[in-house]
Write a structure and sequence with these properties.
Length: 351
């Protein structure tokens, strides 16, 4: 149920350590605080426009090729982003994804995704501004590198009401290039190291006995990072886990294979375990549906974070050292899997 382990070479480990050191937690907090929220096309279009402009400017300043990809959904079912969050029908949605492209020697691309919208009544510091800030810093960190594969950074729209932006993004990207993998950053920056602060949905131990046993031995602190992945993303997940473990400790990355895949071993479990839908709450699902290997990186959202989807999801609640660690681990994963361009060595320094 866990991906094959990966080992970073000494040069990459040095680069990773230097990159973490160069990421100032106070600067990351300032970047989170600079985004307006709540923001959405439906309820707060002005704030969404401002946030989109901030993303475009940061990508452009880092020297990436930037595109705004408008899309329209004539009619579709999703969920409300307020109140009871029940199922809802959305006619004639018009949104836009923002992408930044760093062409490599080959067009086949690695993608990193973070949704830009928030729910109606939350400023969205953790869901999902912190992840968007990772995208902006990746653009800066990766800009000096010459890589074999193309890299795409994407800020998606309409995630909170049903993944409409990601489902428009995937075919748009595939029209231009093959996709070799995707990392979805979703609600990543809340940490509480006290025992008993992490909740688990019922049935977790049936599908993930080893991971739950390890958490139990540690007293269930809300300090780990869940890496939810499909089988095809095993190498992607193992590389990310190795990078994150290098800067946070081996107990922090917790790989979790997609429940639908695990349950093929014991299909009856799917009928008695109620939490499976929690693994489909993110833009990685659009990549899974298209057969693209994908990984979701998450702090588990409402299973530890009391401010999830509330008005007190504010910047002072977040752990910016953890945000720096996830930024560096993501950058290292891209460096390893995208590979150096011909004539380039693995050695490098952070921007």
């Amino acid at each position: 149920m866990s991906p094959t382990s990966a080992v970073l070479d000494p040069g990459m480990r040095r680069w990773l350590a230097d990159t973490v050191e160069a990421l100032d937690p106070s600067e990351l907090r300032a970047q989170v605080e600079a985004f307006p929220g709540p923001r959405s096309r439906i309820h707060r279009p002005d704030a969404m426009h401002t946030a989109e402009g901030r993303v475009i400017d940061a990508f452009s300043e880092a020297g990436w090729q930037v595109e705004r990809l408008p899309f329209t959904t004539a009619a579709g079912f999703g969920i409300r982003d307020h109140g009871d969050f029940r199922r809802a029908r959305y006619p004639n949605l018009s949104g836009a994804n923002v992408i930044a492209v760093r062409p490599g020697e080959v067009s086949a691309a690695l993608v990193v995704v973070a949704h830009l919208d928030t729910v109606r009544d939350s400023p969205g510091a953790n869901d999902n501004t912190a992840a968007v800030v990772v995208l902006l810093n990746l653009a800066r960190l990766l800009a000096p590198l010459r890589l074999r594969h193309t890299v795409v950074l994407a800020a998606t729209d309409f995630e909170e009401i049903g993944l409409f932006g990601a489902r428009a993004l995937v075919p748009a990207l595939r029209d231009e290039r093959p996709l070799i993998g995707a990392i979805n950053l979703e609600t990543i920056a809340y940490v509480d190291r006290r025992p008993g602060t992490q909740r688990l949905p019922g049935g977790m131990s049936a599908l993930y006995p080893r991971q739950v046993a390890a958490l139990r031995r540690r007293g269930y602190p809300a300090d780990f990072v869940a890496l939810i992945h499909d089988r095809a993303a095993r190498r992607l997940t193992a590389t990310f886990a190795a990078g994150l473990a290098e800067v946070t400790g081996p107990e922090i990355p917790v790989p979790l294979r997609a429940p639908a895949e695990v349950a093929r071993i014991a299909p009856l479990l799917m009928h008695v375990i109620p939490f499976v839908n929690n693994f489909a709450r993110g833009d990685h699902v659009a990549f899974w549906e298209a057969g693209v290997p994908a990984l979701q990186v998450t702090d588990t959202a409402n299973f530890r974070y009391g401010a999830y989807h509330r008005g007190d999801d504010t910047p002072e609640r977040l752990d910016y050292e953890r945000l720096a660690a996830i930024t560096a681990a993501t950058a290292a994963t891209i460096r390893v899997l995208a590979g150096p361009a011909r004539g380039e060595s693995e050695a490098g320094r952070p921007a």
